[in-house]
Amino acid sequence: MPAFRHRMLLDWINDVSTPLRAGKRWPIIDVDEQTLRDYQELFSVARDWGYNGITIWGLYVDHAWPVDLKSCLTPARKKIIDGILDAARRCGITVYSGMGVYTWGFEEIIRAHPQTSRNEGRWCYGRFVESNGVAMCYHQPAAREWMRKIIDFAVQEMGVQGFGFQSADQGRCYCSQCRQLGDMEYHALVNAETAQYTRERWPGVKLSVSGWGINFDKDEDWPHLKKMAGQLDFITDVMDQSFDRGREYRRKLIQTLPCDFGSLGRTVVVPPQRWERDRWFLPHARLLGQNISQLAADGGKAFEFFAGPLANPQFDLMTRYVGRMLTHPEESIEKALGLAVDDVLGPHTPAVRDSLVQWLLEIERVYFSRVTEVKGEFDYEPLMGVDAGPPIYLDRLRTALADFGQDMRKLQEQYQPLRKQCRQEAKAALIDRCLTNVQKDIRWRLENPKT
Ligand SMILES: [Zn+2]
After folding, report:
1. C-alpha to C-alpha distance for 72 and 158, rounded to whole angstroms
2. Which tens digits make up the pLDDT trace of 67-85?
3. Residue 220: phi, psi to the nearest 5?
4. How far is the CA of 383 from the centre of ligand 1 (A)?
5. 201-227: per-residue pLDDT in tens?
6. pTM exceeding the 0.85 threshold for the entire prediction
7. In terms of CATH, what superfamily is 6-330?
8. Dihedral-angle region of residue 58 (phi above 0 means left; psi in -120 to 50 means alpha; beta otherwise)
9. In whole angstroms, what is the distance from residue 402 CA to residue 390 CA?
10. How many angstroms separate the alpha carbon of residue 176 from the centre of ligand 1?
11. Which residues in 419-433 are b (16+ Cβ under 10 Å) and which e?
């Protein structure tokens, strides 16, 4: 099986931050010199492990573009962002800017220019939401003008090399005119139109659509999907809905689409923004490795790994491992994970490395074998919130939490002789600290059961 064509990382700008980021509404997009250092390190790892792109959200804005656009880029911010883009270029990593299409980022513009929107509610993840201050209307010409202005701004002022479009995550306009359009029909229209404009105005800029909130599981949607895909480099079935319809359905869909097709790996682990970096450790190499191999076998050519801080050893290992799997999708999970273990921990012998690999897979097993649903977004703490939130990922274990706690205690004991046989002592010690902190959270949850 050949390597994936689009070997991508994906994140909100601070998901890879070495220090935790708290004290503000999610997503925090503050940047500083440390942000630049974090990306320099990430890109150097990404290059060494075979990635060739990253979609970054929050390069300029979180929920709202300022109406003058320019003021989102203070000189200090521009310096950092330019540095990030430079570092990426030097490592051969194409930066796609996460870009809301008609939604995500338009709250202030809609307030200042109400003719961009119609306040008749929106359709969001399969349900009607009465309030709408977030989605512009496809049928309002002013909305199209703003969309294009922002695309131009991002390419001209920022020099981004690609866009990861997203039109559905916060819902779409559901005014009397827009609701005549089916869901996929609507998203295909806004994405295709924005992509076509970008292609013509800025040839060479890479384009993808990330399908948060879009369904890929209906045969009748294929004509719309094809229309949208005709303008794109790749499209991501974020929640693997086409996989749920069966491998044969997905294979046919992949063959039908005129652009490359990808996934986020079915089990999407989102790093906690507001937690200390040594508070969690839950690698999921088997789940992701299987998903990557199956996607490659079905003809998939794109994959986006949800990135996290290298300061956390789970992401330190998994970033490398996934990069290896994307360049060698036929390789065994154990071999690819062993290479990541070699690089991060430096075990003295192949036997120690192999034991560490089995130990990591066992950590994955004792958690994921006990949760009922391994598909979808996994948050450690609630995404929303201002300060560190409770360990909600443990609640998925329900009555098995105490057993999981016992297993983690045993696994920490098993780790002690192994860690002593690693050259990278600081990193080996960091994993041990994470294991201790995971057990602290387990104890806290057992003593404070969820009501
Ligand atoms: Zn509308």
Report:
1. 11
2. 999 999 999 999 999 999 9
3. -70, -15
4. 29
5. 999 999 999 988 788 999 999 999 999
6. yes
7. Glycosidases (3.20.20.80)
8. left
9. 17
10. 7
11. bebbeeeebbebbbe
